[in-house]
Amino acid sequence: MSAAAATIAGRPGRPKSEEKHAAILQAASRLFLERGLQGTSMDQVARAAGVSKQTIYSHFDGKEALFRRCIRCKVESYGFDGVSVPAGDEARAVLFAVAKRFMGLIFDPEVVAMHRVVMAEAAAHPRIAALFFESGPAATQRTAASVLTELVRRGMLRPHDTDAASWQLLNLCFGSFQMRLLLHLIDSVPPAELDAHLRRAIADFVRLLHGAESPADTGPSDPRTSFGGLLLVGRRAPQDRFLDCCRRSLPRA
Fold first, then answer.
1. Residues 6+ apart with CB under 8 A from 247
2. What is the per-residue pLDDT across 64-80, written as a single tens digit (0 to 9) for each?
3. Taking a C-beta distance cutoff of 8 angstroms, is the pair 82, 144 a contact?
4. Alpha-carbon distance values, 27 to 48, 73, 106 (Å)
């Protein structure tokens, strides 16, 4: 059962309109995964849901609106319709808890499958990719940015560009797992391996933020000493350390 249908099915004594709404979302989610947005028609959704096409249009403006709602329901099923930051927690603990939920969503088999479907359609139908991105990844990133903003407000992180940093945090957390899942190289991510990776990624992320000057103090970032736009203070940039390793590996004349 889809996340949307499961959520609505839990409500006791719900009216018929909610039952139909859940049936439409469940049918549409399955068809979008099997055939993609372009390959799914509203007639097919109506037949699979056991409702008329007119009933679907009474709930949704069109196929794109239905597609967006299916994605948003999956996002909301992981609690990303609003993430509260517990009082008194240390920044790393908060970010680890939130990152675990993020990765649970990103590595969900249905999400991985939809990601593959959208990537296959993106070149010919960029509108589909834009709909998926805005309703899924971008919505998740906005939640991450709000968490970082709250941690800055509490003085648990130094002021920084939370919009840019939220993308950096998510990309650090992906590691190689997402790519390997998309390429069918692995079927799932071992929980212990993911936990260890997330703890390292978050420790690095927080350390970089606490080593960053306020944007007002630094002026434009220097690409030679910055990490994702965050100026590092009192330490060498990762790029320079990498170049040093390369130089040491070269044969001496």
1. none
2. 999 999 998 888 888 77
3. no
4. 6, 13, 22
The answer to whether the CB of 155 falls within 8 A of the CB of 210 is: no
Q: What's the gap between Cα 101 and its chain centre? A: 10
- SS3 per residue for 192-215: HHHHHHHHHHHHHHHHHHHCECCH
Which two tokens mark 96? 């680890």
Which residues have C-beta within 8 Å of that of residue 221, sequence separation ≥ 6?
229, 230, 231
CA-based R_g, the chain, Å: 22
In the block, tokens 């939809």 appear at 114
> For the CA atoms of 90, 198, 4, 14, what is the dihedral angle to 10 degrees?
-30
Which CATH number does 82-210 carry?
A: 1.10.357.10
Task: Give me the phi and psi of 222, to 5 degrees please.
Answer: -95, 115
pLDDT tens digit sequence for 153-180: 998 999 989 999 999 999 999 999 999 9
- Using an 8 Å Cβ cutoff, are 137 and 95 in contact? no
Looking at this protein, which amino acid is placed at residue 133?
Answer: F
> Which residues partner with 226 through β-bridges?
231
Q: Yes or no: is domain 3-74 CATH 1.10.3210.10?
A: no
Gap between the Cα atoms of 68 and 44, Å rounded: 18
